[in-house]
Specification:
Rossmann fold, alpha/beta, about 280 residues
Length: about 280
């Protein structure tokens, strides 16, 4: 029987595993991107297809040298994955836009992973500088990977962010399932900013997390600017991962959404989940 998995909405049933079977991970040879590879491995299902993608500048002074450097970045990431028992697919792409290249590669994936820091060694391409744009444009869940807080490891402390909207349901489902699977400490921050009537109450999301994990989460009711309150809550509970929902808003007017501001400001990894 095949392993149960979350779909792209993040919807899982109680007791099922929130695992990703198809992951695209952007690498650039930096220590930050290698941390992203390690985190991708922890989120991968047994036998998952993980593609390591390095994007080089095809118009660089020496395209051959550019390809050599991107190849080295991919090989470093592959070494990390092999030590976990996973066999990656390695790909080097010469493209003017890392954003467009990664979005195209991840179009049919379950998860896109990029690091939020670290200057690339491949002709100055910075995965960190593209993370917000990818968070804005990606139609699949995206992990913005960062080093865990001091004394913490990835997935040992999960903060689920809720504002009562339908997108938060997806974050609750996936965040709860991840916490259950990895035995993580779990907290729920519920932010009301007064702009809309919440579709779900704090109590409803708390009950759902208990159903998924069997443990009552730490509950943090907040008011005010949502992104600021979420980031502050993550620091208070020393979260190593924030899970938040996001709307499908890809027009220019959607830039600067709560999920994107959280991804930019947080000091830990952020997993952004979208509905279909």
């Amino acid at each position: 029987m095949s392993e149960p998995q979350a779909d792209r909405t993040g919807r899982v049933e109680a007791g099922q595993k929130a695992l990703f079977h198809s992951i695209v991970c952007g690498v650039d040879g930096s220590s930050s991107s290698l941390e992203g590879v390690r985190q991708a491995a922890l989120l991968a299902a047994p036998g998952a297809a993980i593609s390591l993608v390095a994007v080089g500048d095809g118009l660089a002074r020496s395209a051959i040298l550019g390809e050599e450097r991107t190849t080295a970045a991919v090989e470093q990431g592959a070494d990390v994955l092999r030590r976990t028992g996973l066999v990656p697919t390695e790909k080097v792409i010469m493209h003017l836009s890392p954003i467009d290249a990664l979005l195209e590669e991840a179009r049919e994936a379950d998860l896109l992973v990029v690091s939020s820091h670290g200057r690339s060694r491949t002709f100055g391409v910075m995965l960190g500088s593209t993370a917000t744009a990818l968070a804005h444009r990606a139609h699949v869940p995206i992990l913005i990977a960062r080093q865990p807080p001091p004394g913490r490891s990835f997935l040992d402390s999960v903060l689920v962010a809720s504002d009562g909207r339908v997108e938060a349901d997806h974050a609750v489902e996936l965040g709860g399932a991840l916490a259950a699977q990895h035995g993580a400490r779990l907290a729920l921050v519920h932010v009301e900013d007064g702009r809309e009537t919440p579709r779900r109450s704090l109590a409803e999301h708390s009950v759902r997390l208990i159903e998924l994990t069997g443990v009552e989460p730490v509950v943090l009711p907040e008011q005010g600017p949502a992104a600021d309150r979420i980031v502050e809550a993550a620091e208070r509970v020393s979260a190593s991962l924030i899970v938040t929902g996001a709307r499908h808003v890809t027009a220019l007017g959607g830039l600067g959404s709560v999920s994107e501001r959280v991804a930019h400001q947080a000091r830990c990894s952020v997993l952004i989940v979208r509905g279909r």
